[in-house]
């Protein structure tokens, strides 16, 4: 990293054209100072690469077997549908950030999902 001797700003690599030949020089974005010998010192190639992702890469598919895994914490609460007293629990911020989150519960026996507002 080098700095401009005139204003002290950080010098940035820029392309400079001399006829048909393009070279890379260090230039100051504020005052326009160009370091002349920078072209010989910089041996890096400036390349850009565009990466395009397929929509399938962003979609997470959860199979039936993975849905059966019980990785959520459980609480003792009565299921309104079957009367079971154990349910998985998780919280989601469904309303504004200044309001409390909604607690979702899923019965471990019948998989009925219900919510509890705080």
Describe the structure.
- Strand 6 (102-107) and strand 7 form a beta hairpin.
- Helices cover 7% and strands 31% of the residues.
- It has helices at 38-41, 64-67; strands at residues 12-18, 21-27, 34-35, 74-76, 86-92, 102-107, 113-117.
- The protein has 2 domains: 1-44, no CATH class; 65-117, N-terminal domain of TfIIb (Single Sheet), CATH 2.20.25.
- It has 118 residues and is mainly beta.
- The strands form 2 sheets. The protein has a 4-stranded antiparallel beta sheet with strand order 4-5-6-7, with no helix packed on it. Strands 1-2-3 form a 3-stranded antiparallel beta sheet.
Topology (SSEs and partners):
Layout: E1 12-18, E2 21-27, E3 34-35, H1 38-41, H2 64-67, E4 74-76, E5 86-92, E6 102-107, E7 113-117
Antiparallel strand pairs: 1-2, 2-3, 4-5, 5-6, 6-7
The tally of domains stands at: 2
Count of distinct strands = 7
Number of helices: 2
**Mean model confidence by pLDDT:** 81
Order of helices and strands: EEEHHEEEE
**Which residue ranges are poorly predicted, with pLDDT under 50 across at least 5 consecutive positions?**
none
Secondary structure class reads mainly beta
Classify the fold: give the CATH topology of the largest domain: N-terminal domain of TfIIb
Largest sheet: 4 strands, antiparallel
Per CATH, the architecture of the largest domain is: Single Sheet
* Beta-strand percentage range: 25-35%
Write out the strand line-up for the largest beta sheet, numbering strands in chain order.
Answer: 4-5-6-7
